[in-house]
């Protein structure tokens, strides 16, 4: 058996998320079907984490084992020939048998894009959260680093029992304690962008953080309230979940 590592980019708009679902198109299922067409094998690729419906990826990582003798470079070409244009394999490499896309991951970076202009261009609408209303971006920037370090992120995790059972944490870790290595907001042209890097993320965690920072930008909350919300370990204390369209998995580190 050989093991392949794929680096994949995708537009998540028309998919139910990474994980295979019985009645909706998923990234994992679409990729598995493409691999099957090429190798003749029934394979379920394992991703570094489970992105939700509508969430995008610039460099998702997936692994799968195969008995096929196809060279890595040819596999990449063949996969891109049969995959829809919304999913692209950027890199294909053969790796050691013990390498696992999720279990071997050490850190991930996510990005969230908010379009601040009055009118959102139609070609951007699927890839940003359009929010043209007043925000104190400076105070949002001051609040972002307050979540850095090791914390229990229960207040920022999805609470729906079925969803938590179905999706679990993005990284497969037990419990709700995670370490955030970097958290910051920055302005790039008409966009306000949040980037967060950590050793793992809970279901909806990044989108719930963005929704909470937005309340700080609206001055409904103060920056220090982020600490109080963390300590509460209560989802109802944090802000609403930001839309999926603005979220991207940027990179996975091993």
How does this structure look, described?
Strands 1, 2, 3, 4, 5, 6, 7, 8, 9 and 10 form a 10-stranded mixed β-sheet that branches. This protein has helices spanning about 25-40, 70-80, 135-145, 160-165, 205-215, 225-230, and strands spanning about 1-10, 45, 55-65, 85-95, 105-115, 130, 150, 175-190, 190-200, 245-254. Helix 1 crosses helix 2 and helix 3 (about 135-145) crosses helix 5. It contains 6 helices and 10 strands, in the order βαββαβββαβαββααβ. The radius of gyration is 19 Å and the shape is globular. It folds into 2 domains: about 1-95, Alpha-Beta Plaits (2-Layer Sandwich); about 105-254, Alpha-Beta Plaits (2-Layer Sandwich), CATH 3.30.70. It has about 250 residues and is α+β, with helices and mostly antiparallel strands. Strand 2 and strand 3 (about 55-65) form a beta hairpin.
